[in-house]
Every structure is written in C-alpha cells, then in structure tokens.
C-alpha cells in the first residue's frame, strides 16, 4: 500500500475548525483510474434516446437533392414523446416531413408508437405514473401527459390485457380438461383481500387446477357489487 495516500481523511485543527489534509485529496492519477468507460454493445433495442441537437445535424442538407437547408426553415413539432420536422427545400422545391417514430392504428386514430407503449409498459410493470413523470422531467425526456397516459391505459391497455388473459384462461381450462383423470379435476381456491379482517372492500378469487398448477379463472369482487349483498 502506498503510504503517501490515506484511505481515511485526516483532520487538521486550525482555529477551532476542521479541514481535510492535502494528502487525502484525490490525485490526478486517481481520477484517471476512476473514470468510467462506457461499454459498447451490439444494437439490440428498437428505441434509443437522442438529443435534439444531434437530430438537427441530420438536416443540414436535403435528403433528396443534397442542397443546403436553411436552419430557419426547419419546423420542429413535438407530439408527446415523438418529434417531427418539416422543411421545404429551396433546391428541389419539395416539402419533406420526417418523424422520430412510426405510427400505429388506422385513419385518424393513428398514434405514435411510444405514446401508447409508455403508459401500457408502466401499467404492466407496476410503475406509478407520477414516478414515471418525475423521472422523465428530471432527465428532460418527452413523454405523454399524465392524463393522456391514464386514458391510454383505460381505453387501450386494459382491454388488450383482458383479451390476452382471457385467451390464456381458455387455453388453461382446455388443457386441464384434456389431462383430467376419470374422477375429475381437483380444484383449489385462493382469495386475496385489499385489507385484513372485516375492513376489506375488494377481493380477488382465483380457481386453479391443483394437479397442473394452472389458473382456470380469476374473478375480482367488490362489496359494492349488487350480488354481494345477497
């Protein structure tokens, strides 16, 4: 161990105040060793974060005729997480538009891909929308507004998840029926409540095949449901 470098800052007294001694300060060689080297990897994702200043470099010349583009003629438009640029080339006189994302849907209901994927992914992973908004605000990353994301989850995300889960349940019940012994299917029930004791307002009841361990059906119940009072 180099005795000239102290692993713990030593304190020197001067006029009833304390300050770290100079031998505890990191040297230039220490800083060079601590520099992080970003690892390069093969392209595996569909989306990457790009600074707007880097996108502007792509539009110095017309993509069609190669003529220089006046930066003032570039019109940038933000649609939540997507960015669009339009310009008219002074050389070929053509009007161009370029989007950072592709769109999904049909007709007037088309939306940019990530504007729908962001809230649905947050919902599926259990990420609170307010925390996602805070994170992106700190990093200056554009995403849909909180209200828009909640509407996307309600009108698009939940129905799509219900359809997929319904197909899984149907396949599980068919598999359980096909592999059932002669005496029948042995099922087990499990109930989960949102609060202990008599304070519970919501309950989820799950029925599963005890032999295969497959969920056959799951139902959510609330004390406000009309049939719960009977």
From TrEMBL:
Region (Disordered): 1-42
Composition skew (Acidic residues), residue ranges: 29-41
Entry-linked Pfam families: Mutator
Ranges where the Mutator-like transposase domain occurs: 65-207
InterPro entries: Mutator_transp_dom (IPR049012)
Compositional bias annotation for Polar residues: 1-27
PANTHER family: PROTEIN CBG10204 (PTHR31751:SF42), SI:CH211-108C17.2-RELATED-RELATED (PTHR31751)
Record's protein name: Mutator-like transposase domain-containing protein
Organism: Pristionchus entomophagus
């Amino acid at each position: 161990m180099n005795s000239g470098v102290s692993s713990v800052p030593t304190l020197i007294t001067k006029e009833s105040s304390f300050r770290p001694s100079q031998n505890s300060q990191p040297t230039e060689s220490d800083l060079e060793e601590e520099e992080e080297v970003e690892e390069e990897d093969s392209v595996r994702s569909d989306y990457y974060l790009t600074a707007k200043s880097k996108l502007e470099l792509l539009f110095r010349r017309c993509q069609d005729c190669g003529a220089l583009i006046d930066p003032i003629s570039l019109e940038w438009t933000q649609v939540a997480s997507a960015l669009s640029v339009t310009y008219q080339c002074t050389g070929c006189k053509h009007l161009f538009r370029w989007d950072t994302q592709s769109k999904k849907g049909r007709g007037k209901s088309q939306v940019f891909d990530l504007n729908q994927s962001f809230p649905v992914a947050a919902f599926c992973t259990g990420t609170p929308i307010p925390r996602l908004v805070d994170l992106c605000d700190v990093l200056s990353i554009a995403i849909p507004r909180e209200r828009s994301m909640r509407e996307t989850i309600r009108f698009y995300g939940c129905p799509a998840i219900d359809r997929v889960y319904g197909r899984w349940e149907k396949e599980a019940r068919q598999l359980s029926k096909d592999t059932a012994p002669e005496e029948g299917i042995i099922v087990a029930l499990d109930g989960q409540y949102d609060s202990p004791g008599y304070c519970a307002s919501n309950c989820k009841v799950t029925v599963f095949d005890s032999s295969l361990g497959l969920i056959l059906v799951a139902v959510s119940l609330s004390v406000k449901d009309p049939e719960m009072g009977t």
